[in-house]
């Protein structure tokens, strides 16, 4: 299917009226709607059509939820089949054929060592609900209340998840350094920086005067998404597994955004070969509909009946859509495809850096890609990396690039501590032609943004 150029902007009273009413009625906490003022009315695959008649290539994909893009035929068929069957749509945690099929398909994709001895808890509809469930599980099983989390993390918006993400005070959370090549917290970068981070973690946990509350678990993201698309080095991941096993600390892998083939493996922990004690899963596992679960070692299943619940944990349509999505990704080897196509896109984006000093770093894994934009003319910070002095991030340029992308029919997201990382999360069904169009439009948007007077205006936060 050919990738068409965006249609000319058409004035639409319906489009403008909907946006105006949204601004008047919805809370000030809304985020995506501020930087992406579009009104989607139709969508298929990677393409969204707005009420104004414009078409967009969607590299947001519901923050990674749409593994197969919008309205994929296998997802729609799975949903229709449940609806047409007359099966109940709301069943709390009762057993159903739909749930059994979903669980069977999910377990077939898990790391074998975990799947052979696993339990699953269906949680509330969002990933943050599953994070909270994981915390409750490990605290109940261990009798300890402390938690180890990492700088740059994002685990959700509920109280415990926010504390683990550094967004709320909690004396029970110990913050540890996350390896970062471009902005290494130790000024080293690369393997050396990862070794220092692992050494510091081990030292702090074993220091009787370190002040670390006895940890029930360590939670980490194999690739930090909201934190700026920071892939964890495989060797460092193995070190974290060793450290936690030696100290009987449960390891929680937050695969809410990295799972279901996104990074080039079905689950991102497979890159390093580790098997966590708990996996937190949401987003793509529901096939575009709300679904969140935790999967964990049976030895941790010490909950009493009713210890964790949620009214909408029996979402039959999401389970049907999720099972269809998991099977399609597995049968069509879309994880491998994401790895191959993602590597190709990373290479092209890195090549742009030769002509654009404002591209500080291009990083990612599979179809989870980030481009950090910097101000090369500003005074660099004192912390150095293996690449030398890294210029300061340029969130104003990133915001300008996002808007220029939108004008060219491309939807992208921003992330990182300073919102200076342009993020790409295209569906795994991305074609070669679409991948080329994404990079071309992004490059054109960057050129336009660099020529604009964006530095004279405050971009402000977009999330």
From TrEMBL:
Pfam families per the record? Answer: Aminotran_3
| Keyword match Plastid | no
Name the Enzyme Commission number(s) assigned to this protein. Answer: 2.6.1.76
| UniProt pathway | Amine and polyamine biosynthesis; ectoine biosynthesis; L-ectoine from L-aspartate 4-semialdehyde: step 1/3
Which cofactors is this protein said to need? pyridoxal 5'-phosphate
UniProt keywords (A-Z) are:
Aminotransferase, Pyridoxal phosphate, Transferase
Domain of life, source organism: Bacteria
SUPFAM superfamilies to which the protein is assigned, alphabetical: PLP-dependent transferases (SSF53383)
Query: What PANTHER family does its record include?
Result: DIAMINOBUTYRATE--2-OXOGLUTARATE AMINOTRANSFERASE (PTHR43552:SF1)
- Annotated family: Belongs to the class-III pyridoxal-phosphate-dependent aminotransferase family.
For this entry, the protein name equals: Diaminobutyrate--2-oxoglutarate transaminase
According to its UniProt entry, this protein's organism is: Streptomyces atroolivaceus
């Amino acid at each position: 299917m050919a990738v068409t150029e965006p249609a000319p902007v058409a004035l639409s009273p319906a489009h403008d009226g909907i946006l105006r009413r949204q601004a008047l009625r919805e809370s000030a906490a809304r985020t995506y709607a501020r930087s992406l003022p579009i009104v989607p009315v139709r969508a298929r695959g990677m393409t969204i059509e707005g009420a104004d008649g414009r078409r967009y290539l969607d590299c947001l994909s519901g923050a990674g939820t749409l593994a197969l893009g919008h309205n994929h035929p296998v997802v729609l068929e799975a949903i229709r089949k449940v609806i047409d069957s007359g099966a109940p749509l709301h069943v709390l945690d009762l057993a159903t054929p739909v749930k059994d099929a979903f669980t069977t398909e999910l377990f077939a994709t898990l790391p074998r060592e975990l799947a052979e001895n696993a339990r699953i808890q269906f949680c509330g509809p969002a990933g943050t609900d599953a994070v909270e469930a994981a915390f409750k599980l490990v605290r109940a099983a261990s009798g300890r209340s402390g938690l180890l989390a990492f700088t740059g993390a994002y685990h959700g918006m509920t109280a415990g998840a926010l504390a683990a993400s550094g967004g709320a005070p909690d004396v029970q959370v110990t913050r540890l350094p996350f390896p970062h090549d471009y902005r290494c917290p130790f000024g080293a970068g690369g393997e050396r920086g990862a070794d220092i981070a692992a050494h510091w973690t081990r030292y702090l946990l074993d220091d009787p005067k370190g002040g670390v509350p006895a940890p029930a678990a360590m939670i980490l993201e194999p690739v930090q998404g909201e934190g700026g698309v920071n892939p964890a080095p495989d060797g460092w991941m193995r070190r974290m597994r060793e450290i936690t096993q030696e100290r009987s600390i449960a390891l929680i892998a937050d695969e809410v955004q990295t799972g279901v083939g996104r990074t080039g493996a079905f689950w991102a922990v497979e890159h390093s070969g580790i098997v966590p004690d708990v996996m937190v899963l949401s987003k793509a596992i529901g096939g575009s509909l709300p679904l969140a679960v935790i999967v964990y070692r049976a030895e941790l299943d010490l909950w009493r009946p009713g210890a964790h619940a949620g009214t909408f944990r029996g979402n039959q349509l999401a389970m049907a859509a999720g099972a269809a999505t998991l099977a399609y990704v597995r049968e069509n080897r879309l994880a491998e495809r994401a790895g191959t196509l993602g590597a190709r896109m990373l290479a092209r984006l890195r090549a742009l850096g030769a002509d654009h000093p404002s591209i500080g770093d291009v990083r990612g894994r599979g179809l989870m890609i980030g481009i950090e934009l910097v101000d090369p003319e500003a005074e660099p910070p004192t912390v150095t990396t293996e690449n030398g002095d890294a210029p300061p991030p340029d969130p104003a340029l990133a915001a300008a690039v996002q808007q220029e992308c939108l004008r060219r029919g491309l939807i992208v997201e921003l992330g990182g501590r300073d919102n200076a990382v342009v993020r790409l999360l295209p569906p795994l069904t991305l074609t070669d032609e679409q991948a080329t169009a994404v990079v071309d439009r992004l490059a054109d948007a960057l050129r336009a943004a660099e020529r604009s007077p964006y530095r004279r205006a405050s971009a402000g936060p977009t999330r």
